[in-house]
Amino acid sequence: xxxxxxxxxxxxxxxxxxxxxxxxxxxxxxxxxxxxxxxxxxxxxxxxxxxxxxxxxxxxxxxxxxxxxxxxxxxxxxxxxxxxxxxxxxxxxxxxxxxxxxxxxxxxxxxxxxxxxxxxxxxxxxxxxxxxxxxxxxxxxxxxxxxxxxxxxxxxxxxxxxxxxxxxxxxxxxxxxxxxxxxxxxxxxxxxxxxxxxxxxxxxxxxxxxxxxxxxxxxxxxxxxxxxxxxxxxxxxxxxxxxxxxxxxxxxxxxxxxxxxxxxxxxxxxxxxxxxxxxxxxxxxxxxxxxxxxxxxxxxxxxxxxxxxxxxxxxxxxxxxxxxxxxxxxxxxxxxxxxxxxxxxxxxxxxxxxxxxxxxxxxxxxxxxxxxxxxxxxxxxxxxxxxxxxxxxxxxxxxxxxxxxxxxxxxxxxxxxxxxxxxxxxxxxxxxxxxxxxxxxxxxxxxxxxxxxxxxxxxxxxxxxxxxxxxxxxxxxxxxxxxxxxxxxxxxxxxxxxxxxxxxxxxxxxxxxxxxxxxxxxxxxxxxxxxxxxxxxxxxxxxxxxxxxxxxxxxxxxxxxxxxxxxxxxxxxxxxxxxxxxxxxxxxxxxxxxxxxxxxxxxxxxxxxxxxxxxxxxxxxxxxxxxxxxxxxxxxxxxxxxxxxxxxxxxxxxxxxxxxxxxxxxxxxxxxxxxxxxxxxxxxxxxxxxxxxxxxxxxxxxxxxxxxxxxxxxxxxxxxx
Length: 721
Description:
The chain is mostly beta strands. The protein has eight domains: 2-136, Sandwich (Immunoglobulin-like); 143-223; 228-308; 310-389; 391-470; 472-551; 557-636; 638-717. Helix content is 0%, strand content 59%. The protein has no helices and 68 strands. The strands form 18 sheets. Strands 7, 8, 10, 11 and 12 form a five-stranded antiparallel β-sheet that branches. Strand 1 (2-5) and strand 2 (14-17) form a beta hairpin. The protein is elongated and about 165 Å long.
């Protein structure tokens, strides 16, 4: 490493040479020479560094030392500069500078103090050895400020050599008088440097100042206006999709052309829609890849072709019937053509038409139901159309008083239970009637006549009625004995009383019920029945039944029972005595006795009415010819509480229990004996004065209501303060 130091104003320039290696930095050669023709030294070390230290003077009475060196290596990462105060002081790191840097200004020095410097190169492999030390003692220097500014709509940076201005961020530097300062302007992308102004600089090249005073200069930057070209996109083919660009500008879709700066590389990306595929580029692009790069050195046109996906729709017919299926849009006519291909997302409507004698019963596969079938072709689809031979319903009805069954051949009807069935068009159906025991078949009507077998050809819906006539037998009821009563039958027919005989179909089970009249008892059956229970007779021949009724013996006493009802209370007493209900509410009285019942309501209740063996509200007289029941209804008496509010706009009165809210509701009826509490609620602008009538004072008013009562609440406005 060769270190070169010179100090303006000293007796002579001094030059010291030392060689150092930095490994594994490559091995450049650096040559340094003394000014004025001093011989130079050549070194073939790994790195050769020349350091020049210059002491500067100025009127500002500040000092600077400027170092410079030559860099002949190609693989250093930078340089480390170390400084010591005095020739025996300890070195410390002053600064690190980037690769290729060949100078440094140390402005943090004091005039009259000696400083020594050494430099070493570094890279990722490590540091080189130090250079030799170069020392200098600065005197007071005259410093001037050079200020750079930027103007114009464009942008850029201004840098100086030696370093100090990097504008950008640092746009002024203090520098010693006599220093030659070179300034260069670099425009940013999209801008141009249009020239210098100020400090005697002009033109668009670099500006060199020999500093002799404070100076200001301006670098003017303008926006550059690049040429633009239009890129136009066209979409072709039966499919669909979008094309986008990077950089942005085209979304085609909606925006299918855009202008781009000359030289721009525009990447187009094709994205096929659902049901489509990207088929390829043409024009300024080619191929089938999804992206296409276009260099915009002229107007360009690109076509993107999208193909539609297609899917097959297949129709199958099933069933014993026949018919055709057609499609809209056309393609399927099945009949002959039972499959067709359609573009993605096409809605295809299928219509089924049965031939004569057949019926369309519904779809299967991609459709269901019996209406038209609409299939959206987003995949291959299959549909089945079901046709059956036409069917007609044969309905059998049964009439007449008899019973029996009707069956069919071929099977389907068993009437009895199943009296209608569907048969294919043209089917010959034979019906056979079989009367039940006790009945006879008397003939057909409707689609058949006569009494033989019935054959129906099913060219349409048909109805046939089979008439069965039942055999009948007479049932006669006779009543006997000293008592009286009636006999009725189920099923109806006998009501003996008046109608004591009736005819019933053979096999009918007839139930007879005997009901004794008052004062009589049923003694029993004879004839076709026996015993004293109900009598069931099966009518397989004429039948006779006798019902015997006897006079019932009179009891010596009967029970009279009294029940009380209603919300009120009271006592029921009898004359002759026996009932005092209260406690004793029933008693036995001799047959034929006449009993008078008297109702006596408690206080607050009233007697409302009699029910049962007596009615009305008068006295109750009961003739004890049998057990009797009487109900006495007592109700609570009601009384009314009436509230008067002297000023409803100043307050209200409410009750507990509820009923009065006076304000609006100022009276309420309650059962006699009820206790009601009234509360006065003045407004915020009034006071409650007090109660009068059935209450007094200002507190809660409690009223025991044994009769109608009135209360007055008085409110007044508060006095103004």
